């Protein structure tokens, strides 16, 4: 039997003896701030932000030894003690022996249940943990059942250490900050309100109250309290052998106050008796609030067992309803796996790129590319919200084509770079267009290109190479004109600036400069001379796409021209001879950025849309030809690939170095995706990738071959052990984009190989050691790491919906062009997808009675609600946006027959 099994079609899964696997953790969160990580033995942490940790912050490498976390103890009349989480000294000693207790973890979207047989006590315990979506409280509901043949008298203790301060204080002034604690016992639990938030740059008075409350099923409250760590563990005791429990230490009563100690949310309930087979339930609440009355209200609400059960079911249903995409293939495990992949973008929206045990870097929030890539999945699940988000996100673009990198709270709020560090990631201009194009395709709202939006302004100018000495805080973070008013430009203007400035910022090989890094943040040591061939190919495709959007704007709105900032004219040179001249490109970019140092004149010029589109097409065409001529490596008749980068010494990264092959996956993805690579070249690339990068047993395609050197002239990635993170791991994000690129070019079999190997490895629990979903990468031994918070999930979902199942938008029309292989249909030859489009829900059923694969079948019939749909080239079924608009808001069924 597989150790991890799905229970139904909602993604719910179970695993036996989960404590036997290291580094497992599960996310829990509300929609209003509280974020938790919980392990199979109830470890992990809980917080709102970097400054507000309820439980002690943890990283993945101290999960196994951190005892400062949730626990609940039970003691019988004979003095036998056990922990419901298995976190006692004796229970841990029993692990991997014949005395190990039976345990099982069951989990679904945002909830976890732990079942454990407490063998010494003859008790069965169930602990369900979740966070209501609208409250900043984590709820532990504990059910204790007597499995003995006789009645038992028992005593229960809750024990949750309260960290109650900034994550910075885990070592920095840890003891000093405990002196700020003001701890009090109340009738229902323990509250901690530190006097201030400790920061030597400027201490702030604190308003946050951290609390742990407890109730039994009848609403009875604790009898004694242990409000400090010292009082609970006792002299010489520990969190896995607390003397208050083992030796029945007397606690304090309610209405006590203790100052300046490490706080403990520990208390004892009144003794209770369970007859044989009888159960008793307890509810433990741990949370953060600023108002004591609110805490009292939370306690009153969730002290009622029925309310807890009701809210648990509401929470389960709420997150299930969020995932509006559902797949049905011939593999139910894969379908359940996709539930988690489709849920992961919601987790990244909530957690950002921090606040889970692997993600122990940064101080919360998302980065620039995260904003845009997360919108890709939201467009497929919550499209009504995305248009507003896109418009606001463009406020982060600077007039020099770079962008803010610190994302504030809410949509459209950006902050100056932290600590004055100026850094430019050269890929950042790529993602807004990709997301905006998908939005237009899904909705038909081409008018979004004409929306007027402000620009971000801070002291960093000339693409991060110098400072605007005239800027100050009083100026604000919005670009101004010479008359002092805030300057705004259309979204189209923002996109033009982003792509045109990048076209001129090239290195000695006439390839876009790498700058601080591109998508691969670990290529961060080639700021002077590094160049990114991979993303130059990506930008060539973006220029073509932007030209197509301009043509669409022209045709659908009957608009012939557009107004743009006068200075942009410098970047629209018509002389194509300039394109080969690196020095001239630098002069043009310098001239433009010099005119945008502080304020702009604000004058606009009118330019025909057709002329704009032609200008972009010329640039894109030149880039494609340049890449094909200069960057293709023809190894032999069977193999070849594109160079990916130039290092800071101007040397190419890829090729045959005296028999040692250097190949990077990133450099192949974007030439394929953006029609730089020819079909013949793609065949050579796939053979080369299979030869040099593919390792099925560890997830599929590695990010690169082993360079066997520490390239300090390219990036920190080469300092990592080979097979770890960016240095040769199976990096899920780029593997998924490789699959997406192959599908776009019609190489479905090769694309599915990349997707399926990732899924198979994720679901092979004995190899990946992760709960369902896609991790950031698989390391050298196949273990999945940096789980949940990865852009790979959005791209995996996007690829499955738009490429594999072929549900695509084209300027608001629904186009169905499946690329399913024979193995992706069930035994009856059917495969289906339920998804959102144009504000409506569609179940699209493909019937493939002859079990043919992509390339062999054609669409012979298509209908929506029994009404025939148009079919083009035997491959595309259409539902126009005009017909879509006439459909009601109910669910609709589309049936397509493939022969």
TrEMBL record:
Keyword Ubl conjugation: no
Domain annotation Glycosyl hydrolase 94 catalytic: ranges: 318-457, 620-806
Keywords in alphabetical order: Glycosyltransferase, Transferase
Molecular function, one GO term: glycosyltransferase activity
InterPro entries associated with the record: 6-hairpin_glycosidase_sf, 6hp_glycosidase-like_sf, Gal_mutarotase_sf_dom, GH65_N, GH94_catalytic, GH94_Enzymes, Glyco_hydrolase_94_b-supersand
Transferase recorded as keyword: yes
Domain Glycosyl hydrolase 94 supersandwich: 120-304
Highest taxon of the lineage: Bacteria
Pfam families linked: GH94_b-supersand, Glyco_hydro_94
PANTHER family on file: CELLOBIONIC ACID PHOSPHORYLASE, CELLOBIONIC ACID PHOSPHORYLASE-RELATED
Protein name: Glycosyltransferase family 36
């Amino acid at each position: 039997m597989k150790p991890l099994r799905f229970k139904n079609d909602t993604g719910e899964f179970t695993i036996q003896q989960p404590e036997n696997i290291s580094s497992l953790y599960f996310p829990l969160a509300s929609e209003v701030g509280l974020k938790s990580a919980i392990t199979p033995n109830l470890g992990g942490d809980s917080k709102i932000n970097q400054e507000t940790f309820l439980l002690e912050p943890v990283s993945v490498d101290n999960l196994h030894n951190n005892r400062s976390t949730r626990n609940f103890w039970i003691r019988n009349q004979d003095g036998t003690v056990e922990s419901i989480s298995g976190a006692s000294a004796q229970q841990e000693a029993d692990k991997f022996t014949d005395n190990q207790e039976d345990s099982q973890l069951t989990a679904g979207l945002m909830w976890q249940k732990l079942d454990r047989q407490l063998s010494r006590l003859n008790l069965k315990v169930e602990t369900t943990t979740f966070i209501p979506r609208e409250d900043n409280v984590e709820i532990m509901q504990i059910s204790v059942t007597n499995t003995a043949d006789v009645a038992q008298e028992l005593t229960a203790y809750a024990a949750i250490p309260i960290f109650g301060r900034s994550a910075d204080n885990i070592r920095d002034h840890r003891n000093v900050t405990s002196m700020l604690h003001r701890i009090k016992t109340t009738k229902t639990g323990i509250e901690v309100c530190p006097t201030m938030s400790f920061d030597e740059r400027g201490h702030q008075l604190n308003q946050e109250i951290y609390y742990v409350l407890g109730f039994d099923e009848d609403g009875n409250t604790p009898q004694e309290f242990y409000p400090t760590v010292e009082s609970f563990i006792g002299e010489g005791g520990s969190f896995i052998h607390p003397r208050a429990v083992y030796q029945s230490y007397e606690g304090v009563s309610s209405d006590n106050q203790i100052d300046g100690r490490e706080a403990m949310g520990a208390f004892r309930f009144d003794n209770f008796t369970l007859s044989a087979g009888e159960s008793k339930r307890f509810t433990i609440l741990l949370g953060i609030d600023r108002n004591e009355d609110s805490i009292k209200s939370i306690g009153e609400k969730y002290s009622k067992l029925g309310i807890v059960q009701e809210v648990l079911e509401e929470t389960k249903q709420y997150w299930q309803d969020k995932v509006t995409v559902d797949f049905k293939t011939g593999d139910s495990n894969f379908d359940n796996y996709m539930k988690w992949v489709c849920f992961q973008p919601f987790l990244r929206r909530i957690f950002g790129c921090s606040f889970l045990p692997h993600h122990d870097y940064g101080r919360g929030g998302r980065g620039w590319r995260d904003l845009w890539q997360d919108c890709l999945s939201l467009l497929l699940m919550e499209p009504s919200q995305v248009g507003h988000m896109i418009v606001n996100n463009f406020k982060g673009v600077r007039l020099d084509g770079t962008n803010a990198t610190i994302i504030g709270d809410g949509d459209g709020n950006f902050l100056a770079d932290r600590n004055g560090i100026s850094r430019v990631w050269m890929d950042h201009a790529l993602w807004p267009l990709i997301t905006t194009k998908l939005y237009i395709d899904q909705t038909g709202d081409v008018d979004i290109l004409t929306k007027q939006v402000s620009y971000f302004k801070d002291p960093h100018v000339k693409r991060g190479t110098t400072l605007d000495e005239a800027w100050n805080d009083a100026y604000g973070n919005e670009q101004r004109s010479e008359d002092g008013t805030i300057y705004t430009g259309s979204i189209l203007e923002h996109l033009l600036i982003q792509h045109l400035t990048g076209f001129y910022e090239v290195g000695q090989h006439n390839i876009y400069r790498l700058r601080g890094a591109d998508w691969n943040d670990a290529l961060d040591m080639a700021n002077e001379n590094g160049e990114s061939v991979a993303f130059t190919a990506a930008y060539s495709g973006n220029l073509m796409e932007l030209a197509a959007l301009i043509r669409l704007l022209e045709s659908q709105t009957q608009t012939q021209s557009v107004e743009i900032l006068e200075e942009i004219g410098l970047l629209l040179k018509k002389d194509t001879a300039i394109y080969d001249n690196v020095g001239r490109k630098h002069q043009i970019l310098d001239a433009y950025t010099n005119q945008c140092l502080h304020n702009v004149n604000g004058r606009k010029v009118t330019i025909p849309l057709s002329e704009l589109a032609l200008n972009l097409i010329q640039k894109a065409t030149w880039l494609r030809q340049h890449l094909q001529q200069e960057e293709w490596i023809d190894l032999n008749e069977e193999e070849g690939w594109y160079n990916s980068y130039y290092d800071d010494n101007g040397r190419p990264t890829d090729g045959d170095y005296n028999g040692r092959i250097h190949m990077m996956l990133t450099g192949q993805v974007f030439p394929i995706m953006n029609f730089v690579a020819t079909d013949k070249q793609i065949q050579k690339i796939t053979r080369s990738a299979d030869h040099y990068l593919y390792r099925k047993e560890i997830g599929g395609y590695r990010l690169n071959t082993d360079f066997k050197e520490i390239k300090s002239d390219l990036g920190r990635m080469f300092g990592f052990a080979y097979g770890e993170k960016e240095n040769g791991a199976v990096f899920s994000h780029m593997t998924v984009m490789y699959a997406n690129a192959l599908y776009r070019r019609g190489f479905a079999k090769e694309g599915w190989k990349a997707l399926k190997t990732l899924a198979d490895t994720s679901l092979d629990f004995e190899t990946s050691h992760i709960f369902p979903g896609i991790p950031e990468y698989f390391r050298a031994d196949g273990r999945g790491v940096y789980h949940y918070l990865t852009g790979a999930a959005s791209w995996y979902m996007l690829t499955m919906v738009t490429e594999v199942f072929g549900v695509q938008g084209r300027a608001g029309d629904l186009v169905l062009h499946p690329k399913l292989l024979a193995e992706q249909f069930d035994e009856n030859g059917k495969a289906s997808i339920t998804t959102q489009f144009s504000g409506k829900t569609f179940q699209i059923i493909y019937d493939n009675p002859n079990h043919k694969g992509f390339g062999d079948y054609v669409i012979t019939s298509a209908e929506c609600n029994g009404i025939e749909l148009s079919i083009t080239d035997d491959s595309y079924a259409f539902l126009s946006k005009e017909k879509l608009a006439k459909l009601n808001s109910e669910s609709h069924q589309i049936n397509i027959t493939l022969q």
